[in-house]
Amino acid sequence: MFDLYVVTDKGLSKGRTDAETARLAYEGGADAVQLRMKNADGAEMLAQAREIAAIAAEMDRFFFVDDRVDVAIASGADGVHLGQSDIPVEVARELMGTDAIIGVSVQTVEQAIRAQENGADYLGVGSIFTTSTKPDAVQAIGLGPVFEIRQAVDIPVVAIGGINRGNIQDVIRAGADSAAVVSAVVAQDDPRAAAHELRDLILKVRPHVPVD
Amino acid sequence: MFDLYVVTDKGLSKGRTDAETARLAYEGGADAVQLRMKNADGAEMLAQAREIAAIAAEMDRFFFVDDRVDVAIASGADGVHLGQSDIPVEVARELMGTDAIIGVSVQTVEQAIRAQENGADYLGVGSIFTTSTKPDAVQAIGLGPVFEIRQAVDIPVVAIGGINRGNIQDVIRAGADSAAVVSAVVAQDDPRAAAHELRDLILKVRPHVPVD
User: Distance between CA B101 and CA B79 in Å, rounded?
Assistant: First the structure.
């Protein structure tokens, strides 16, 4: 479903807006961007979401909004990404309809199976490695659960958490369909080049029809 | 539209959940409750919202959710209350439909007129007095704007911010259709009695057909 999935973090983005970072990530070859703005006001998040949705539509890429189903719908995003403490996936599905793509963060096989049963379209699995970009993330789970979850469900598995150029191929080899990164793209001086390199690293270990 | 409008604040509620506080407020005579949970996760907010929506339906009172349109829709609330930095009222209207009741916080006549033009069903005007319960509130505006805004718009004006038993009648005399309180109900040992007293004080200066 995805190759490289990029999650925004304004605080790491060297003064760029999330929409500016998203454009650079897409230009570098990311096929999905998730707008994550913890504690942002609705108006500010909606403004960024609408900018990114327009870019994603223009470039034919995926765009997801973290947590806020209302912002996802109002911005025209492809879907929403939900954590274990966000609105349940089945509630989001009712609000968004069958065409929306809903991702769910999971840490265990049990959570993965439940998310799939409740209608998730893909899973975010992690944090794989220790990361400082998601302060509320649980302890790193390592690569073992990626493989176990990949065996247990049919929907795509996107590994996330502490992934960078040095370990991204390990993540794909462990069974992840895709890798999601935060600082490895958004905190770089050249997010476009960083995304391009990371996507190439993924495709080298998992040959895949490019999206563009 | 409303007599006494109560806004929740879990941190002030002496160990009660927001749903427990809401029930006591309704029992005391509040005809509207707004669930405000700044920085709460979606699942937690939705759970509280569903509890309060059930109580409000049972008692035939109004229930609003602060900020989160998705939680408002999913919980079956009557509507949503939006600040100036939340999702715009016209976007919320598109998501919620014509039957939803949408309130907007305003501080000035200009904001009040714009909110009405954009489809707001009522206005929250404040903070009237200095208050510690809404850390991000702008400076207290006093009673003058209540009167000015009341003259400038047709929709109900709910005054909010630092309102208590000592000043609630001044607020109604200044032209507010209703008064919203936070700590004057939710932080009390007996929120039911506090709501009852505050509603009586309102009705004494503004005779009104009781809701129950």
Answer: 4
Tell me which long-range contacts A188-192 makes (C-beta under 8 A, separation of at least 24). Answer: A189/A14, A190/A24, A191/A16, A191/A21, A191/A24, A191/A25, A191/A28, A192/A24, A192/A25, A192/A27, A192/A28
What integer pLDDT is reported at residue A139 of this predicted model?
Answer: 81
Q: Give the one of A74, A86, A94 whose C-beta lies nearest to B42's C-beta.
A: A86
Q: Which two tokens stand for residue A18?
A: 């999330």
Ramachandran assignment for B55, one of left (phi > 0), alpha (psi -120 to 50 degrees), beta (any other): alpha
What is chain A's length?
212
Catalytic annotation on B61? no
Token pair listed for A162? 């502490």
Amino acid at B46: L
pLDDT in tens, A133-178: 665 555 899 999 999 999 999 999 999 999 999 999 999 999 999 9
Which among B143, B139, B132, B120 is positioned nearest to B182, based on CA atoms? Answer: B132
Q: Which of A42, A67, A94 sits opposite B87 (nearest CB)?
A: A42
Tell me the whole-structure pTM to 2 decimals. Answer: 0.93
CA dihedral A57→A187→A212→A201, nearest 10 degrees, is -160
Give which of B67, B70, B114 to mutate to test A binding, by max A Cβ within 10 Å.
Answer: B70
Which residues of chain A lie closer than 8 angstroms to B68, CB-CB? 42, 68, 70
Residue pLDDT, tens place only, B87-144: 999 999 999 999 999 999 999 999 999 999 999 999 999 999 987 666 555 589 999 9
Active site residue A105: yes
Whole-angstrom distance, CA of residue B25 vs CA of residue B8: 10
ipTM: 0.91
Instruction: Report the alpha-carbon distance of residue A179 to residue B196 in Å, rounded.
Output: 57
Residue A42 to residue B85, Cβ atoms within 8 A = yes
CA distance A182 to B92: 30
Amino acid code (one letter) for B180: A
Contact B131, B159 (CB under 8 A): no
